[in-house]
Write a structure and sequence with these properties.
This protein has 225 residues and is of the alpha+beta class. It has a single domain, classed as NADH Oxidase (3-Layer(aba) Sandwich). 37% of the residues lie in helices and 19% in strands. It is built from 7 helices and 6 strands; from the N terminus they run H-E-H-H-H-E-H-E-H-E-H-E-E. It has a 4-stranded antiparallel beta sheet with strand order 1-2-4-3, sandwiched between helices. Helix 1 packs across helix 5. The longest helix is centred in the middle third of the chain and has 20 residues. The structure holds flavin mononucleotide (FMN). The site of flavin mononucleotide has 12 residues, from strand 3.
Amino acid sequence: MNRRAVRGFTDQHVPREVLERVLSAAAWSPSGSNLQPWNSYVLTGAPLAELKKLAGERVAAGDPWDEREYEMYPPALKSPYRERRAAFGKERYGELGISREDVEARQRAAAANWQCFGAPAALFCYIDRDLGPPQWADVGMYLQTVMLLLRAEGLHSCLQMAWSVYRKTVAEIVSPPDALILFCGMSIGFEDVTVGWSQRRGSHHRQPRVMSMTRAHAIAVLHLK
Ligand SMILES: Cc1cc2nc3c(=O)[nH]c(=O)nc-3n(C[C@H](O)[C@H](O)[C@H](O)COP(=O)(O)O)c2cc1C
């Protein structure tokens, strides 16, 4: 279905019935013991415009990020993840013509996250703070299901942990119960094909899938990383 992270959207309206169709179907995603630990809030129109305005004001004021409710990455990312993150940054900012040293331009590009890259719809996915890693994995499967169903409707998306740093501003708009942690946002809309990065596909580096193969007790064990 050609899902990829799209970071440039047109302002074309995303019909409510399409979003409802996608989320109703995604509710059938698998989860351990069928806990269905995802909690989604979808914003369009005036509430999303208000969120973008408030987030934009925080960015412009150099407001510190909200204290973390979960760590996006371990503080010292080890190999091979460190190198993969560096390669992603190089590719992303390289495409935008931004050098490694140009911190201001990098910050400007990152700030597009909090404008949902121009998308007219956004989903915010929360999880109960009492749940653990297996349930966070369930939420990941759910989000992937949502993204694939969006593709089937001709829509694109970009998941955004970036929203978690302004979680209090998101909460002002969606008023989630205290028991929930914001995992991430997801920008949703029709792709703006004039935005360079979003057109590039196949350039994202992927690791070889099969790292090793052993035979134990006559059963082939594939070690997939
Ligand atoms: C949980 C999660 C959080 C992400 N957060 C962000 C984000 O905050 N901003 C962003 O631009 N991309 C974000 N991404 C998109 C990834 O950078 C992207 O999926 C990855 O580079 C692979 O590229 P592809 O999705 O186009 O295949 C996120 C992806 C995931 C799965």
